[in-house]
Design brief:
Elements lengths: L2 E4 L6 E5 L6 E6 L5 E6 L4 E5 L4 E4 L11 E6 L5 E6 L4 E5 L7 E3 L6 E6 L5 E6 L3 E6 L5 E6 L4 E6 L5 E6 L4 E5 L4 E6 L6 E6 L5 E6 L4 E5 L4 E6 L6 E6 L5 E6 L4 E5 L2
């Protein structure tokens, strides 16, 4: 039920944020680092103003989800938030307005993962159903639907907006040309469910995390595995990469956060 902020250089805990009433399932910083958004199984999302040490619960002034918030992303300009829930809906929030969020229905199962494209024109969502939906960020209009073998737990756009990577219960990382819907590659090697994906800033590599307790680094040009980082005990639950691509952070099932310095 808490969010902890850490200094990566020293490993010291900076502050503790403790306003949620149940498990926290997703976190996202705004690009300027001033705000942090958290989503919880208590059905709420909280926007934390880190600079002024204030918080604002989205549900206090807009109609929120009626079940657990499982995933979210924030546009790079900090104006739009997209959230997915166990209530089988996706909501698009205008953070600069008090108008109600635009709610997208028609999903058949929980929404587990959402990513906004770097150019802020699209977002992709996946979940317990096989469909991967790509929509316009401004109005939610469906652009393309892709289909995986099983449920999807992680999605990411490449930095140049051209590729989409998806991972899920089938243990595969799939690479797509999302504009045509063509699947152009599969990264095989994980032994359990894929839980996290992150592209390097230059778009040349992709890092993947799995419940098999490993993080793998893949060269996109050859689609070959170039490194495997073991020791992420009880499975990798989340990954993030620093803006310069040199620091990789994993959150694992053994309650540990691991920091890797990449060459």
């Amino acid at each position: 039920k808490t969010v902890k902020l850490w200094n990566l250089l020293t490993g010291d805990e900076i502050t503790l944020l403790s306003q949620h009433k149940s498990l926290i399932r997703c976190l996202k910083f705004t690009m300027d680092g001033q705000y942090l958004v958290s989503g919880s199984e208590d059905k709420s999302m909280i926007i934390w103003d880190l600079k002024n040490q204030k918080s604002n619960v989205l549900g206090n002034w807009k109609t929120g989800h009626n079940q657990a918030v499982l995933c979210l992303d924030v546009s790079s300009d900090g104006k739009i938030l997209v959230s997915g829930s166990a209530d089988k809906t996706v909501k698009i929030w205008d953070l600069n307005s008090k108008t109600e969020p635009y709610t997208l229905t028609g999903y058949g199962a929980d929404i587990l993962t959402i990513a906004i494209s770097p150019n802020q024109e699209l977002f992709v969502s996946g979940g317990l159903e096989k469909n991967i939906r790509i929509r316009r960020l401004d109005n939610g209009k469906l652009v393309r639907s892709l289909t995986a073998n099983l449920g999807v737990t992680s999605v990411a756009f490449s930095p140049d907006n051209k590729l989409l990577a998806t991972g899920g219960f089938d243990r595969l990382v799939r690479l797509w040309h999302w504009e045509t819907g063509e699947e152009i590659g599969r990264l095989e090697g994980h032994l359990e469910q894929i839980t996290a994906l992150v592209f390097s800033p230059d778009g040349q590599t992709i890092m993947t995390g799995s419940l098999d307790e490993t993080i793998k680094i893949w060269k996109l040009g050859t689609q070959a595995e170039i490194a495997s980082l073991p020791g992420n005990y009880q499975g990798v639950l989340s990954l993030d990469l620093s803006a310069d691509g040199k620091t990789l952070v994993s959150g694992c099932g053994d309650n540990a956060i691991r920091v890797f310095m990449l060459k």
